[in-house]
Amino acid sequence: MDFTLSEDQELLRDTARALLAAECTTSMLRAHIDDPAAADPLWTHLREYAGLAGGPLTDHHLFLEELGYVAAPGPFFATTALFAPLLGTVDHELLPAALAGEVTGTVALAGTDGRWRANDDPVKTFVPEADRVDWVAVVSGEPAVTLLRNPPTRLVRTVDTTRRLFEVTVDASGSGEPLPILPEELESIVEWATVALAAEMVGTARRLFDMTLAYAKERVQFDVPIGSFQAVQHKLADMALDLERATSAVQFAAMAHDAGDNDRHRATHVAKAAAGAAATRAAKDGIHIHGGIGYTWEHDLHLFIRRAYGSEHWLGTRAEHHDLLAEELLI
Amino acid sequence: MKLGWGPKEEAFRAELVAFLDEQAPPEALVQRDFDSIEDDSGDIIPAWSRKWQSTLFDHGWMIPAYPAELGGRNCTPIQTLAYLEEMARRSIPRSFHFPGYAIVAPSLLEFGTSEQQTLAPAAIRGDTVWCIGMSEPNAGSDLAGIQTRAAVHDDHFVVNGQKVWTSYAMVAQKCFCYVRTNPDVPKHKGISLLIVDMDTPGIEIRPLRHITGAASFAEVFFTDVVVARENLVGGLDDGWRITQGSLAHERAGLWVESVSRLEYTVGSLIALARRRGLDRDPVVRRRLAEMYERAASLRALGYKGFASFAQGSSAPEHSFMKMATSELGQECFELGVEMQGAYGTVVDGERSEESGRWAHSFFVSFASTIAGGSSEIQRNIIAQRVLGLPRG
Ligand SMILES: Cc1cc2nc3c(=O)[nH]c(=O)nc-3n(C[C@H](O)[C@H](O)[C@H](O)COP(=O)(O)OP(=O)(O)OC[C@H]3O[C@@H](n4cnc5c(N)ncnc54)[C@H](O)[C@@H]3O)c2cc1C
Q: Which of A91, A250, B260, B310 is deepest in the core (most CB within 10 A)?
């Protein structure tokens, strides 16, 4: 039971932090709202890390946590947490190029109900970055995988301006032979992606928490910092608890998957649910503690609040993961 | 990062398992929701548990991190974790009176004179039962506000005042007693720690029944109680430091027991839901899953804190564990009571689920968010010491 980071992992995390602080600023996030190409320069840096998708989840997720901290837009999550693992599972020839960051891709799986399980719906939903990646891997009900180039897409706007989600119309006459994939293989891919998203959310929650804690120390009312009021202190203590337990649960889930441990299915739902609790609490209490300034468009807080709620509702909400967990526990 | 245990820990665990299989008495194998302060016999410290504690000590399994003369085997922190997990997994209690081994012995070893340190083995082995005299009628959360006075003389102190909620006072031989030795300085600076023999003339103990009806704590009155100077632990007026003292090994390990009990409770909640036909109820299912989520994430948090602790850095994670496990425990028992509808409050053995365990444990659990630093005090500590917020 060793939760310590190796020196290499610490180095990876610190490198990511430095890189992202410089390349993924909030002014870029704002420019990206109207022009997704604003995130292209970021990808030229991040593509060098696409190979993380071929290694242990613990390393990959450590990196994703940092991406969540800056609410990074662009194809990194879709390519490394969805597309590459799918290619790897069906042994696709594009895998080396994806791991080298030379091609980008995404996965279209969820149907009309927005849930990530195999189906034959003609329109796939909540597909990240579908219009700007090189490949869209469509998963059908059998399940089987078909790679499409430039399928018809429709942007579906959500509160989250940092992650672009699409409907993709799946043309039955799609190019190439469908590649079969086992249901349990598909389940693993969805679980990895779920924990990956949970890792990102922990980063976003930490950003919201850090901003709020700093503000509580600096904002003075009644001649004292608002962080000296017990009502504010106790909110921050509760935010910190949810953040800490989510961070650990996500790390545990990644370790459980890396080790093929029997606990990995439960750990996945625990991780996403805990990350959801941490991120949404940090968002709600975070804006509350900021007072009026947090309610403005000018203040950066909302960028991360948006990311937090967008992520909570993607790949299964906390309540949905509780239901899935209950299936594991009660049947 | 690595899941599971290395070969060294597995070998260590195997040794423990062999010992437990051979030596653990049947009474120790009964699953318990809490470090039950009573067992079925109604004794605060049942005879079998006294014997069991000394057996653990004699075989080096009481506090494995300590050397043999202190009931251990010089094991590493990670082995301690493996030990605590195995004990908790089997729900085997080490002792029915924690103050001696968990608070008194480590404090004496760190702050006591060499003479005082000779009291540690008996405290850990359970041969001496200790009580902790901190709380007073006017000093609970505000511990530094204690008023029990110890007048300082050349070779002795004379103690007058009152303690309250003193667990084990009626069975203890000794008290770790915090007293005011200097009323003329700021309150944290005039406190001293004394070792007081409970049979000293002038001590009167009045047992207090607690909410479940059992008597496990007491009021303790001191009238002109003479305590020898050599029973002062640490410096004069320097007792506050000891209250904050280094209980590193116990602190770092307590969460294992709390989390394991929580997981056991969540497991019994699931069984209860099945028996009550509520396992298909969507509301109950979500709530059970939420309890499971919180307990599982707290275990992970405990591991993470242990990793930094084992490396020698302080582990802020542990500040969260007491507050989080006690509050979740209460919610679990409340849900157990709620699921039984009209029968939720029935404690009649023949008419209730598990002999009224749920309502009973729910009541017992009220203490967990009050004693040992209430949840509000824990949040203050997290805010001020972990998050660095200014004091209000
Ligand atoms: C089962 C049990 C066993 C015990 N055993 C022992 C023992 O062996 N030895 C011993 O010395 N003591 C013992 N205690 C006493 C225990 O340590 C105290 O009950 C505890 O410190 C709280 O003090 P209090 O009861 O005076 O409550 P108070 O301090 O009066 O608190 C009452 C309420 O006010 C809140 N409050 C207090 N201060 C603050 C603050 N600054 N900010 C926000 N809220 C605040 C508390 O959280 C609580 O909800 C025991 C208690 C129990 C229940």
A: A250
Q: How far is residue A20 CA from its own chain's centroid?
A: 16
Q: Please state the atom number of ligand 1 nearest to the C-alpha of residue B142.
A: 29
Q: In angstroms, what separates the C-alpha of A276 from chain B's closest C-alpha?
A: 11
Closest among A204, A239, A219 to A290, alpha carbons compared: A219
Q: Are A16 and A63 in contact (CB under 8 A)?
A: yes
Task: List the one residue out of A114, A47, A42, A106 whose CA is nearest residue A71.
Answer: A42
A214 vs B: CB within 8 A = no
DSSP A4-36: PPPHHHHHHHHHHHHHHHHHS-HHHHHHHHH-G
**How remote is the CA of residue B172 from the centroid of ligand 1, in Å?**
21
CATH of B241-386, one of 1.20.140.10, 3.40.50.2300, 2.60.40.10, 1.20.120.450: 1.20.140.10
> Considering only CA atoms, which residue is closest to atom 32 of ligand 1?
B141
Cα A1–chain centre separation: 26
Domain with CATH 2.40.110.10 in chain B: 130-237
B371 Cβ closer than 6 Å to some ligand 1 atom: yes
Q: B167: Cβ below 6 Å to ligand 1?
A: yes
- Residue B36 — very low, low, confident or very high, per pLDDT cuts 50/70/90? very low
Domain boundaries for CATH 1.20.140.10 within chain B: 241-386
Q: Which of A159, A173, A177, A172 is nearest to A124 (CA)?
A: A172
Helix A318-330, helix A264-290: angle, nearest 10: 150
Q: Which domains does chain A have, with CATH numbers?
A: 183-330 (1.20.140.10)
Q: Is B342 on the interface with A (CB under 8 A)?
A: no
The confidence score (pLDDT) of residue B37 equals 46
Residue A101 CB neighbour total at 10 angstroms: 21
What pairs with residue A224 in β-bridges?
A221
CA B374 to ligand 1 centroid distance, Å: 6
The CATH architecture one would assign to domain B130-237 is Beta Barrel (2.40)
Residues 314-333 of B with CB under 8 A from A: 317, 320, 323-324
Q: Tens digit of pLDDT for each residue in A93-122?
A: 999 999 999 999 999 999 999 999 999 999
User: Ligand 1 mean position to B141 CA, how many Å?
Assistant: 5
Enter the pTM of the model.
Answer: 0.95
Q: Determine the Cα–Cα distance for residues B60 and B79; give it in Å rounded to an integer.
A: 13
